[in-house]
Amino acid sequence: MEAEDPGLPPKGGMDLPQDGVDLPEQKISPGSMDTGEDEPSVALDEQVELPGAQNNGPLSVAGGKGDVQEELTETREESSEKDLSDSASTDNTLEDSSEFSRPMVMDGGPPGEEEVAVQPRPPTHRDEDVTAESWRAHRKHIFVLSEAGKPIYSRYGNEEALSSTMGVMMALVSFIQSGDNSIRSIYSDDRKLVFVQQGPLVLVSVSSTLQSEQQLRQELLYVYYQIISMLTQASITRIFERKKNYDLRRLLTGSEKILDRLLNLVESDPCFLLGAVRCLPLQPALRDSLGSLLQKAITPNLVFSILVARSQLVTTVQEKTVIDDCRLEPTDLHLLLNLIGATSAFQTGEIWTPICLPRFNPDCYFYAYISYLDADCTVCLILLSTDKESFYSVSDCKKRIEEGMRTQSYLQALSSGLKSPSYSVAMVGAPDLRHFMYKPLDIPDNYRQLPQFTSPELEGPYCSESERHRLFDLYHYLHSRIHSTARPLRLIYHVAEKETLLAWVTSKFELYTCFSPLVTKAGAINVLTKLLRWIKKEEDRLFIRYPPKYSTTPNPGKGSKGPRTEGAENGFFGGL
Amino acid sequence: MKPDGKVVLLGDMNVGKTSLLHRYMERRFQGTVSTVGGAFFLKQWGPHHISLWDTAGREQFHGLGSMYCRGAAAVILTYDVTNLQSIVELEDRFLALTDTANADCIFAVVGNKVDLTDSCALLPEAEDERPSEKPASGCVPTKVKRQVHADDAIALYKKILKYRMLDEKDVPAAEKMCFETSAKTGYMVDHLFETVFDMVVPTILEQKAEGPSQIVDLNNCKTAKNTQRSCCR
Ligand SMILES: Nc1nc2c(ncn2[C@@H]2O[C@H](COP(=O)(O)OP(=O)(O)OP(=O)(O)O)[C@@H](O)[C@H]2O)c(=O)[nH]1
Ligand SMILES: [Mg+2]
């Protein structure tokens, strides 16, 4: 799960330029940043890489001393996106040839050709498809099929109607497999096809976005994990062992909405890209009080208590003995929140349902208690237990939490913060700054905290869906460059068609910023200074800085042998 | 705190269990999403707290049915009158889940979505005026062909009794326990729930009497004001 790993790119080739221009903020506000030796400086020299230039191979290096890679794409009209896409796929070839099995080219080129097919050619492999043009025009198709080639899910269109298409996909997968190999991706001039096989399931992404293969692979894994979260890996394996051509849709009917919603979220919420959780900005004192409320309202086998507001994390408490081994993964929380969002909106009852946290343990169920605490269904309490018979005692915990929140008027305090959208980028006070995503890597007690990030509302030019997609495409592109396995970058200054972006990763944070196109480099650096200072000032509000203490339930799960022996049916211990 | 009595809604996905409960509890019909697991609602009924469990009909959650049914005082088996398979599923798939219910568990068989077939039920809250009226032949032509008839429900009810090894003499009559509803218009929805709750009350009282030093205030019991009304022909 590379995209989730907050780890820094390898240091190799990352020596600081001797004559680089120091970032101003290191002088202005040393408090806001670490000035340690691994802090990169930005060389604002003219050693720039022009990915649009024809003969710039994927390995173009920014001059002799340009060790801190910097990239500048000139502002262009029509061609800019195309060029971008080319350069993105070029980078991916690099990743592929160094790490993955060889990408396959579909138009009869010799298998294993390492070139990316960038030259335009008729999409012959698609001509066989009888479906409409509008269907084909979708930005990204996602297909899930079984090893027997049976359709399980298609993002657009009816899986049944696509069974021949899926059959072809499966034939491809098996053909490559018969040669003791596995198919990973296919590149066409305007599409990437990425294949992921997980147990008896095959997932395929057909995308015309700028996302890297690695990012698309990650998304497919999210889809897989979401399916696992409903069925568990163990039961899927079991089902297909028993009956190879089982129709998994029998178990997934009604869940398509969950997968649809996931795929929309993946394209619009950076939490998936960054592998981090978005926290609700909140006064630290209030957050702490809520945390201790959760920590006190416990019952045997209650393992996680999670309070969210509008899908943003307020606070979470974890049971001590569980955390000794493991912490809650952001992916698991995202999938859980997506499932809740897709199935329980405006639900007045208290939900009690089995759910698997695939990253925590893909083979076992937790029992999730889900209840909204306010009339508008914005504040949601999630309590995860390993005991399926514990509904009433868990429900009782909720009553205690509710009671505590009422007497202290916490709910009003919470919902008053919710009335306004998250926050506006204008609060930073830098007019050229349009949007940013900031993921701190230096949170105290990092090892037991969820990775977090913050970003303001999308405003201004990014209100329409197409513009939002465009911005996220750019973010994805920068992210793929920063996290490229072949040639990771620490800093990218990227002039796009309608905006300028700057991405920067240090040991303390990962930051993506979007500026108006008129910003100058010096101006952008100034804004960065301002932004980092603002975040420093606000960090107690924006992030969970000090997580609540572990809870110790009266009769902790460790002592109760019950769930352990009952196995997959009942809680995570069975698989540990 | 454990509620006094438990009522469980069972039935295939998409028959309208959640919609029925929403209609009853929230007094409205709105878009629903397929339920995951089960959802718990607490209903104050006179001095009693009745727990209502709306369960997921999807096969994915099938194994959980018996958990939700454990100790149930009443089970509402729901089907869709426009979908024959949905009543077949009740017998094939859902009846066995009630093994964990109380021995004296009350059963109701509910055919939902009559608004799709019965023009008479299209009137909002129609049950106040005409509790039981077969759609006259003069009614607006049906939109969807009805696939399940009242007789089928009664036959199912009798099969349930057989399965539970109950004597018809000891339980409410089939005619009384088979309902046809519309969550969309509200037709017969209150009647359904109120009838079931009233029947659950004696069970609750029994339980409370058995419990240690439980004082039961009989005067506060809600009277069975609706039970006389019949719903099925
Ligand atoms: N016309 C009509 N539609 C209804 C009625 N009741 C429910 N529906 C519709 O039928 C669909 C399914 O309703 P739900 O209440 O979600 O069904 P459910 O039984 O809870 O389904 P699961 O939760 O998946 O088990 C929804 O689209 C409802 O709008 C009704 O009385 N009349
Ligand atoms: Mg439902």
Automatic annotation (TrEMBL), chain A:
InterPro entries for this protein: FUZ/MON1/HPS1_longin_1, FUZ/MON1/HPS1_longin_2, FUZ/MON1/HPS1_longin_3, Mon1
UniProt feature, compositional bias: Basic and acidic residues: 73-85
Ranges of residues in domain FUZ/MON1/HPS1 second Longin: 301-401
Domain FUZ/MON1/HPS1 first Longin span(s) in chain numbering: 140-262
Domain FUZ/MON1/HPS1 third Longin: 433-539
Region described as Disordered: spans on this chain: 1-133, 548-576
PANTHER family linked to this entry: SAND PROTEIN-RELATED (PTHR13027), VACUOLAR FUSION PROTEIN MON1 HOMOLOG B (PTHR13027:SF13)
Function, as annotated: Plays an important role in membrane trafficking through the secretory apparatus.
Family: Belongs to the MON1/SAND family.
Protein name: Vacuolar fusion protein MON1 homolog
Gene: MON1B
TrEMBL record, chain B:
CDD domains: Rab20
Family of this protein: Belongs to the small GTPase superfamily. Rab family.
UniProt keyword annotation of Aminoacyl-tRNA synthetase present: no
InterPro entries named in the record: P-loop_NTPase, Rab20, Small_GTP-bd, Small_GTPase
Name of the featured protein: Ras-related protein Rab-20
Classification via NCBIfam families: small_GTP
Gene: RAB20
Keyword entries, A-Z: GTP-binding, Nucleotide-binding
Domain of life from the UniProt record: Eukaryota
Coiled-coil spans in chain: none
The keyword Manganese appears for this protein: no
Pfam families attached to this UniProt entry: Ras
